[in-house]
């Protein structure tokens, strides 16, 4: 709708856009990272071993030595997490019992009375509360998969919602869903309920990141879109760094669910300051609403809105609608679908390349982020580094995209990332 032609005149990146970006849109990126990754620590799996009720009164180290066999792992002997010795522990503790001594030929069995957990790093997690270990250890991973599946489904639904209702109301719908289920998570009393609430949290996660990003690039001029894209990614990385601090301070999973959800209720105050995208309004023919936003933008930026500009836009819009209606009449029997992306060789090649790039980058990025806490060493420091390590990249990425272009920047960065991933096979046994 030729909005790009007017933005340089009212300010491509003036005071209005800067205030909106730094005070509203960039903070709106934070809920995505917080809710996408807080589950890693809610479902953290601390060290555990079989519980033997008869030995509860003993020192844990003594009890482990008596009841838990040693296994060899990565060249080091450690206590088994899922097996225990089969022996008469009541008789063992009785000084007059017939088998008071240790037997080197003991047999082992899976845990029979539940588990003991090491609470030195976490006060409580869903794993410790519902004993999601050993033969049940897949449940934490399944819950994480379902969180992602929820986001995948939500992407399709909320993409249409954003185009139909607009950017502004859509964001607050996503925010409500995410905060509601995020807070509800803290009150789940069983695993099924908790997993259901986590699916609800994951449902709007990708959309709540995309909405402020789309709105940001739609209110700035063409020359500033790379800048806005970089700033949005920086805000997301800073969100992960901030989350690392929160999970370090809050070690109980219920309190963590509240600490990563309740603060975002304050974002509903943005209802009075977050504007609708003028580009979306113009595309919908809502000229009066778009004009109010553009006039406010021009006023805050200290620039006048060109005379009769809205009248010209209306005429152009009506002409385009007339052409579109003729095209619809001409092709009313033509149905478009996913297969149209593969209809011509050129479109087919680009579709396959871009799909591969998105799949590769997303799977590797999310996979490494999820795996970072258990790479070895301090899991809180690992997650902090996983978020912070992105920040220096933007110092290079920003000028590279402007000077070299998107294609070569993408190609070189993917090669560097791929080589780095392959290089890890040489250091598998070290932090």
TrEMBL record:
<feature type="transmembrane region" description="Helical">
    <location>
        <begin position="227"/>
        <end position="250"/>
    </location>
</feature>
<dbReference type="GO" id="GO:0016020">
    <property type="term" value="C:membrane"/>
</dbReference>
<dbReference type="InterPro" id="IPR020846">
    <property type="entry name" value="MFS_dom"/>
</dbReference>
<feature type="transmembrane region" description="Helical">
    <location>
        <begin position="380"/>
        <end position="401"/>
    </location>
</feature>
<feature type="domain" description="Major facilitator superfamily (MFS) profile">
    <location>
        <begin position="89"/>
        <end position="431"/>
    </location>
</feature>
<keyword id="KW-0472">Membrane</keyword>
<feature type="transmembrane region" description="Helical">
    <location>
        <begin position="195"/>
        <end position="215"/>
    </location>
</feature>
<dbReference type="InterPro" id="IPR036259">
    <property type="entry name" value="MFS_trans_sf"/>
</dbReference>
<keyword id="KW-1133">Transmembrane helix</keyword>
<dbReference type="GO" id="GO:0022857">
    <property type="term" value="F:transmembrane transporter activity"/>
</dbReference>
<feature type="transmembrane region" description="Helical">
    <location>
        <begin position="408"/>
        <end position="427"/>
    </location>
</feature>
<protein>
    <recommendedName>
        <fullName>Major facilitator superfamily (MFS) profile domain-containing protein</fullName>
    </recommendedName>
</protein>
<feature type="transmembrane region" description="Helical">
    <location>
        <begin position="138"/>
        <end position="159"/>
    </location>
</feature>
<feature type="transmembrane region" description="Helical">
    <location>
        <begin position="19"/>
        <end position="37"/>
    </location>
</feature>
<feature type="transmembrane region" description="Helical">
    <location>
        <begin position="171"/>
        <end position="189"/>
    </location>
</feature>
<keyword id="KW-0812">Transmembrane</keyword>
<dbReference type="InterPro" id="IPR005828">
    <property type="entry name" value="MFS_sugar_transport-like"/>
</dbReference>
<feature type="transmembrane region" description="Helical">
    <location>
        <begin position="352"/>
        <end position="374"/>
    </location>
</feature>
<dbReference type="Pfam" id="PF00083">
    <property type="entry name" value="Sugar_tr"/>
</dbReference>
